[in-house]
Design a protein that fits this description.
- Strands 5-2-1-9-20 form a five-stranded parallel sheet, with helices on one face. The chain has a four-stranded parallel sheet with strand order 13-12-11-17. It has a three-stranded antiparallel sheet with strand order 6-7-8.
- Strand 6 and strand 7 form a beta hairpin.
- It has three domains: 193 residues, 3-Layer(bba) Sandwich (FAD/NAD(P)-binding domain); 142 residues, FAD/NAD(P)-binding domain (3-Layer(bba) Sandwich), CATH 3.50.50; 51 residues.
- The protein is of the alpha/beta class and 401 residues long.
- The longest helix is centred in the middle third of the chain and has 20 residues.
- 32% of the residues lie in helices and 23% in strands.
- The protein is elongated.
Length: 401
């Protein structure tokens, strides 16, 4: 059997394995091996909810033994140490693996943009542990500030100032749900009711650059209505413990500083000899294959994929829904290759975007449809449920035919 090796079991990598197994009814001639350092699939787009204590950590992790049970997919829990595209091998902490086809879907890392002190003095928001650590820091800040031995709380108080750097999807949604989190905490610590402050900042002139300015301005207005301070054109120069310095001489004090302002591809891609862009990603063709090595597919956050929809030479957004569909296309093309059928071109499309405005509200956009408030949140929750149903059950139903 030919060997298919998939590095990373996030949205894209898992989709490749499950789609190939599903369309082949579990009878593919590819020997499918999925490599991931965790023993569970992380629903990445929901970790901000864990950070803001909106949902328990268990809600965003699904064990691979549940997702892969009954499927012809082998899981290797290991870290990737080196990729050798010339020898067609991958060195992992569990040993050397060979491949005939390779799928790189290793996700991304936090990009700190060489800003002094940013990495050392801020909380990232990439992993489940990041979210849990941030949540604990917020709770500890409230507990410490309510200590009777401490000085009386000011309005607002830097000891209860929570700063989120980066106003993309993750940062914006975290800021929105932090309002509910802090509201819960002041029920236990009433003296902190007027002392806490949530700040969302970004160096751009607006928030949510993925959306039109109209929608970005709408979300900004909703955040400000809920009490979030939104700062744009705020270029961070350096960070010290509890302090953020901006270009122009201004400074902001805060107890808990979170950074969600950028990602980059893992350095192992460049170290393994792939030609990469400035942010470490690999350029691919319209079939999602590396331009250097046709037997290597690259998907999700690791790929620069031409976006032919806008006509401006841009690339496909790095979001979960795009990554999932990229993975599904690769799974289909691998099955078609097995049957001697020409591969299909990747055509990006979006089902829409949903932005949390708190635990009970959201802005959901799909084509001309715009839902706000509770209906928007219900639509967002439906998308979460649909994704989980899809990865848990849909492939099994196909295999059962």
């Amino acid at each position: 059997m030919k060997k298919l090796l998939i590095l990373g079991a996030g949205y894209a990598g898992l989709a490749v394995a499950q789609k190939l197994d599903a369309v082949s009814r579990g009878k593919s001639q590819w020997e499918i091996t999925l490599v991931d350092q965790r023993d569970y699939h992380l629903i990445q787009v929901r970790i901000h909810e864990v950070a803001a204590n909106s949902i328990p950590a268990e809600k965003v992790k699904i064990p691979f033994n549940e997702l892969l049970d009954g499927r012809n997919i082998k899981l290797v829990q290991a870290t990737i140490e080196k990729i050798d595209p010339n020898a067609k091998t991958v060195q992992t902490s569990a040993g050397l693996l060979q491949y005939d086809r390779l799928v790189i879907a290793l996700g991304s890392e936090t990009a700190y943009r060489d800003i002094p002190g940013l990495q050392e003095h801020t909380y990232p928001m990439k992993s489940l542990q990041d979210a849990i650590t941030f949540r604990r820091a917020v709770i500890d800040a409230f507990k410490a500030a309510s200590n009777p031995d401490e000085a009386p709380l000011a309005t607002p108080d830097e000891r209860l100032t929570f700063v989120i750097g980066g106003a993309g999807l993750t940062g914006t949604e975290l800021a929105a749900e932090m309002v509910d989190f802090c509201s819960d905490l002041v029920k236990r610590i009433p003296m902190a009711r007027k002392a806490y402050r949530i700040v969302l900042l970004d160096g751009a002139d607006r928030i949510l650059p993925q959306l039109s300015r109209e929608y970005g301005d709408y979300v900004r207005g909703e955040l400000q209505y809920r009490g979030v301070s939104v700062l744009t054109k705020a270029f961070i120069e350096k960070v010290e413990p509890g302090k953020i310095y901006f270009k122009g001489g201004k400074m902001l004090k805060g107890k808990v500083l979170c950074w969600t302002g950028g990602v980059k591809a893992p350095t192992i891609l460049q170290e393994s000899g792939f030609e990469v862009t400035k942010d470490g990603r690999i350029e691919v063709d319209l079939f999602l294959r590396s331009k250097q090595y046709s037997e290597v597919y690259v998907v999700g956050d690791n790929a620069v994929i031409p976006d032919r929809r806008d006509g401006n030479g841009g690339s496909v957004p790095q979001t979960g829904q795009y990554a999932e569909r990229e993975g599904e296309l690769v799974g289909e093309n691998l099955w078609d290759e097995e049957r001697g059928i020409r591969p299909r071109l990747y055509i990006p499309f979006s089902l829409g975007t949903a932005i949390s405005l708190g635990r009970d509200e959201a802005l959901t956009i799909s084509g001309p449809i715009r839902l706000t408030g509770v209906p928007g949140r219900l639509a967002k929750n439906v998308s979460y449920d649909n994704y989980e149903w899809n990865i848990r059950w849909k492939p099994r139903l196909l295999n059962a035919r």
